[in-house]
Automatic annotation (TrEMBL):
This is Short chain dehydrogenase/reductase. It comes from the Eukaryota. Keywords: NADP, Oxidoreductase. GO terms for cellular component: endoplasmic reticulum; lipid droplet. One of its GO terms (biological process) is triglyceride catabolic process. InterPro entries: NAD(P)-bd_dom_sf, Sc_DH/Rdtase_CS, SDR_fam. CDD domains: 17beta-HSD-like_SDR_c.
């Protein structure tokens, strides 16, 4: 396998992006490791000679264009763009702060589109690859996760549409539906609160369990996930949607084959807090 030039967004220590960037660099690829705040990158990553650190805010087109200029001027070109940067937001739809939800969309959805537009010339020149890290949670109606998961399923649709539109130029596109991965992601979500008069006040603790991560299935290590998706990033694997990591295949199966009534039972399990809410209302 020839060595690649790869840009990864969202490389703050403790996350999926950091694990992917570190594995790629250790394998000899040149990595453009990016983060909005580069002080959050690990010392282990930034001290490697084949890692170039770039400050990047995917919600800012000037910042994105500056990063594209830096990569172009490096003379290395770009073989792979890994869109990983993202925000989390867990709350009932009835209580959703729309400005915060819009900010999430601007990062998780439009941020990736900005990156694709800004780096398209470099990727076409190398007949490269775009890898969008999404979430298998996007394919199921998981209570309290509507903002996050709806942005992710929209990104999956954009990935698949782009796969067709950009194929004449020799660029492949992969949408990685990530399973449960143990990262610092939940720690970066702001403290959970419900507005006064919320209809969900009686199950605040249940919802907060999803915010803190205690209600979620135990995730696998981020470095193991990086190894699982390595070939999807730099290899000649399949394009399109792929399910990777713990519980990913199961979620995909539920979304594709399980009847709605059974999916409803799973989504409304006691872990969701919905049965407790029904009991409280009776």
């Amino acid at each position: 396998m020839s060595l690649k030039s790869v840009l990864v967004t969202g490389c703050s220590a403790g996350g999926i992006g950091a694990a992917i960037a570190l594995l790629l660099a250790r394998k000899g690829h040149h990595v453009f490791a990016t983060a909005r705040n580069t002080s959050k990158l690990s010392e282990e990553l930034i001290t490697l000679s084949n890692v170039t650190v770039l400050s990047l805010d995917v919600t800012s087109m000037p910042s994105v264009m500056a990063a594209a200029k830096a990569v172009s001027e490096s003379g290395r070109g770009l073989d792979v763009l890994v869109n990983n940067a993202g925000l989390g937001y867990i709350t009932p739809i009835l209580d959703m702060d729309l400005e915060r939800a819009q900010k999430l969309y601007d990062t998780n959805l439009w941020g990736s589109v900005r990156m694709i537009q800004a780096f398209k010339d470099l990727l076409i020149a190398s007949r490269g690859r775009i890898v969008n890290i999404i979430s298998c949670g996007a394919v199921v109606p998981l209570p309290w996760h509507a903002a996050y998961c709806s942005a992710k399923i929209a990104m999956a649709n954009i990935s698949e549409t782009l796969r067709h539109e950009i194929s004449p130029f020799g660029v492949s596109v992969v949408a990685v539906m990530a399973g449960t991965v143990a990262t610092n992601f939940d720690a970066n979500v702001n403290e959970f609160s419900l507005p006064p008069g919320s209809l969900y006040e009686s199950i605040r603790d249940n919802i907060n369990g999803w915010v803190t991560g205690t209600a979620k299935p135990v995730g696998g290590p981020a470095d193991e996930f990086a190894r699982v998706v390595y070939e999807d990033i730099v290899g000649k694997g399949k394009s399109g949607i792929v399910y990777r990591g713990p519980n990913a295949a199961a979620m995909g199966f539920v979304a594709s084959w399980v009847p709605t009534w059974m999916t409803d039972m799973i989504m409304r399990s006691s872990n969701s807090g919905i049965p407790a809410l029904v009991k409280n209302l009776s």
